[in-house]
Amino acid sequence: MTSGRFHLLDIESIAVDREGRQRRELLNIDVLADSIKRLGLIHPLVVTRDKILVSGERRYTAIKTLGWTHVPVQYTDELDTAQLRAIELEENIKRDDITWQDRVRSVPEYHDLRRTEEPKWVQKDTPKALGLDQSYIAKLMMVAEEVDKGNDE
Predict the structure, then answer these.
(1) Contact 69/13 with Cβ under 8 angstroms?
(2) Can you tell me the distance from the alpha carbon of 18 to that of 21, in angstroms, rounded to the nearest whole number?
(3) 3-state SS of the chain: helix, strand, coil percent to 5?
């Protein structure tokens, strides 16, 4: 649980201890950056008072690629001590993935929303924006079409 108190920090003042991080690879940064650019930052970074990153390295990296100079943060001393490591771990391992049915429904809806925002948006843009393989997205779109027709299989 966050304290609800957030602060704005110069992004260059935040240090990242790569060796101490749980996540070894930072994947799909361009996808996350696109989301942050369009929708904003949903969760602030968590840092120590010494400005060492505790949680949110992918967000931090994406924000840097967007050229942001300042970023919302929450300080660790505003959180319970036991929660500090749990925040990083739970962000990466505890959350559930959506069901296949929800994923199948969400991809065409996402595609349609993007097409509404950007008239030149085509189906091949969707996999790139989601950081997924084009053939996988095509299969999801076909399954969604069948589900919409009432095919339960």
Answers:
(1) no
(2) 5
(3) 55, 10, 35
What pLDDT is recorded for position 59?
92
Cα separation, 4 vs 63, in Å, equals 21
6 vs 78: CA distance, rounded Å? 10
The span from the CA of 34 to the CA of 131, in Å, is 11
Residue by residue, pLDDT tens for the chain (153 residues) are: 455 688 999 999 999 987 766 566 788 889 889 989 988 998 899 899 999 998 888 899 999 999 999 999 989 888 766 666 566 555 555 445 667 777 788 888 888 888 888 889 888 888 888 888 889 888 888 888 888 888 877
Q: Cα–Cα distance between 60 and 40 in angstroms, integer?
A: 13
106: exposed, middle or buried (Cβ count in 10 Å: 0-12, 13-18, 19+): middle
Give the pair of three-digit tokens for residue 19: 């060796």
Note every long-range contact of 115-123, with CB atoms under 8 Å and residues 24 or more positions apart, other chains counting.
117/38
Give residue 107's Cα distance to chain centre. 16
pTM: 0.62
Nearest Cα residue to 140 out of 129, 150, 120, 126: 126
